[in-house]
Amino acid sequence: MEMCVKLRSFDVARRINSYMHIRKMHYSVMSVRNSAPSQRNDDRLPCLEVRRHRGAGLRNEKGVTVAPRRCSSTSLYTPPAEGENVPFVLKPELDFNALLRDGEKFEKSIEARNMELEGINIPEMISIWKEVCDLEEQKNQMERKKKALNTRAKELSKQKGGSVTKEKVQLEGRKIREEVKSLNTSLNGLMNRLYPLALALPNSLHNAVPVGDENVVKETVGDGLVSLESRKEHPSISTHHPMVHPGYCYTEGELVIKELDLVLSAASHLTSNGFTRFAMPDMYKPLLREALGLNAEEFNETYAIQTRENLMHLAGTSPMGFLAYYMNSVLEASDLPQRCFAVGRHYNAAAESAKFQGLHHQYQDSRLEIFGVSEGAEDSSNALLFQYLHIVTDLISTFDLPFRVVEVSSRNLLPCMHRQMAVELWIPSERNYIEVANVCNCTDFISRRLKIRYPTNPRESAAQSRKRSFGHTIHGTALKTSVLLSAMLDYGALDLKEAKS
């Protein structure tokens, strides 16, 4: 298997290639639809089995918004005993003291988000962490005794005679080594219990986040609340094709050109504001969804594709592409903040519908995703958050359409989000505001899980640094082109000729 991985801190690609080469003769694909089990070195093209993970939805049976459900198992943490069975070990560096010192704050965050409590047990975490701290103190005492004995042994070796004393020191040293070994075993067992519990916790909430279901309007631009006739049947929009998903449509002629123009204009706007453009894959491993605090097997907004090698998630252009790029990286302090964006198709299984409901409600669309990494201080990440928001609102305002900026409520936030702002366009035919862009601050929630770091001392280079801090990540959508096109069609802002039959 040939792989190309962007690396900064160590050669993960070499380990993955070696791992797959060693095991390639023992791998076969059993879960490929309409095909018999096949060896990895088969020359046939791989068949793909596409399915949608369905689990805890956005609303429960009573119609109340609930957050995605987490489970206690995770692929983000590999127990030490299983380290030899994986291509590389990714051990999140969580601040357990801060997590458990502020246990009440996280309980409020869980309640405000209306999260299901499966896999979340803060009292148990506190109990386990106290045991860990006690064992660590015992281990440190043993290490100090061991160091003193080593010094004593060196002194005795320089002296003549005293063989009985030397044997006594050596015996005591062996006893301490056994005790340290036993302590390490106990510590590993406790950490194997603690990590899955801690990784199930959501991010803390910013004080400005409204608790509940209702977003809070921060700013309104233009005259909304205008009701116009729906443009779903516009000649440039073609639906009802039996070989295509009923919730999707074809766009034709000048509408296609207009969408490309909007993308180019938005990309130019971001580039002029210091963003670097990326091109990224469409499929990612489940670990990246877990880094967002989501249960990769139960969340209902993703498609899963079974390839020859792995179960992959089809997301298209999304934050996961940037996370895969920056994972296990040490950035130069002088290069912060990082600003980047990508353009492409996005796939959202939650938007599936039995019939076409308009351009703004499709399970796949074109969008511009933005991402950033700031220094690991909330002041720095909030400054970058509002800088991104200003850039996005400047972009939306160029289209002379009514919009508003809202602070997203706690029950509409993903577990990784500390705070999110959204920009919504008024869609006359829907008589409602529809989100066209958003930005969120995830603080160090993601960077601690995926090890996105920078030198603590700004005078040190990334390669030379030994003490490193975790950056704060910002991500969002700069533009959903289908929502913008839907609004422009409603307002008659597009001078389109009827498509040729």
TrEMBL record:
Q: Which residue windows are coiled coil?
A: none
Q: Which GO terms describe its cellular component?
A: mitochondrion
GO BP term, pick one:
mitochondrial seryl-tRNA aminoacylation
In its UniProt record, a GO molecular function of this protein is: tRNA binding
- Matches recorded under InterPro entries: aa-tRNA-synt_IIb (IPR002314), aa-tRNA-synth_II/BPL/LPL (IPR045864), Ser-tRNA-ligase_type_1 (IPR002317), SerRS_1_N_sf (IPR042103), tRNA-bd_arm (IPR010978)
Start and end of every Aminoacyl-tRNA synthetase class II (G/ P/ S/T) domain? Answer: 311-488
Q: Which family does it belong to?
A: Belongs to the class-II aminoacyl-tRNA synthetase family. Type-1 seryl-tRNA synthetase subfamily.
- Tell me the protein's name: Aminoacyl-tRNA synthetase class II (G/ P/ S/T) domain-containing protein
Q: Which organism is it from?
A: Strongylocentrotus purpuratus
Tell me the organism's taxonomic lineage: Eukaryota, Metazoa, Echinodermata, Eleutherozoa, Echinozoa
